[in-house]
Amino acid sequence: MKKHLFPLFLLFIGINASAQQDFFALVGKDSPNIIFNDFRAIDANNVISGETIFTETSSAKVFSQTRNGAVTEDKNTYNNAQAVNMATLAYDTSNNNLVYMPMFSSNIYVLNAKSREITLVENNVARVTACDINSHFTRMTTGYDGSIYALNNVGTQFIKISKTGNQYSVVDLGTITDDTANAKNSFTTMETGFGGDMIADAEGNFYVFSASGNVFKVVTKDLKARFIGKISGIPDSYSVNGSAVNAKGNVVIASAKGGSLYEVDLNTLQAKQLPGEQNLHIYDLASKYFANDKAVSGNVFANIDIYPTRVDEKLININVNDKAVKGNIRLNVFDLSGKNVMKHSLSVKEGSLNQQVYLRNLVSGAYLVNITDESGKVLLNKKIVVTE
């Protein structure tokens, strides 16, 4: 097996940190209260707002999964796609969807970032009551397996949102409790563990960032939250409300109170202020990246991509729109041991290609897709998850 590992690591040297639409923010109004304004793409390196995807005043086309048809929602309730109080956001890279939940509601909304159509996933798994703020879901992220995970304020519900075919399902994974070593740095109390956001790593674990700046590692096999430290380098009054991993593998944090965004080294928990817009009121952040990921996606060319990354029918689309890419390109698929399990050649004409490739004989699991040009130069590295 070792003979495969060295070339596999070579695949991932050099990450393109240029701005792409793979980092998103849930932004609120300039107000001390939580008031939803919009979902937008954001350049996480330079903190520059990009495309606005959906706003409080956008025309909402909502399709109910349960009722199998379009619905009209009451905008005066908490149970609607443009509710005032929202604090959760995740990016489903497989389908280019933004997934979110209003704070006072158990409804789950799936917004297609391209078509702007919304799927309402009603569920009776999330037990949210307006009078119990502990029950509200304030943290959400995409896991390394491609599913969406959400957590309520005190960890009594940790839910998994998965898609099979065209249907979403919700499962309660249980209660997350404090590790015995946490002592006064409790995950389940308002002073130290309340609110905030969470990210996922490449080993199937999660990191929860509380509003106070405390960071907890959640090991899913035992549902224990272990306190690993407090973020340093941010103002004492800074409220950590959004977190997402950037292309460099560091965590970007943001505050609902406005102010700067910061980049945090997950190993040291040292924060560095980022340039760019300084007064964004951000309630949550979402991205396609994971902490501790040796297979971070690397695009040498901005206009070459594969999708979806969560593959349900063993078909992926290869899209090239870059005149610098010419002639034949080769697609290689590696399993996580580094073994090349598939090869395929494609022809690019005048810098353009849009073709489907059938992933024959691939069993369920995670794979690394590598695309090179005729000279062997790496054009794209990307992780996919094949499901059956």
Automatic annotation (TrEMBL):
Residues 306-385 form the Secretion system C-terminal sorting domain. Residues 1-19 form the signal peptide. It comes from the Bacteria. It holds the Pfam family Por_Secre_tail. Keywords: Signal. SUPFAM superfamilies: Quinoprotein alcohol dehydrogenase-like. This is T9SS C-terminal target domain-containing protein. It comes from Chryseobacterium shandongense. The lineage of its organism: Bacteria, Pseudomonadati, Bacteroidota, Flavobacteriia, Flavobacteriales.
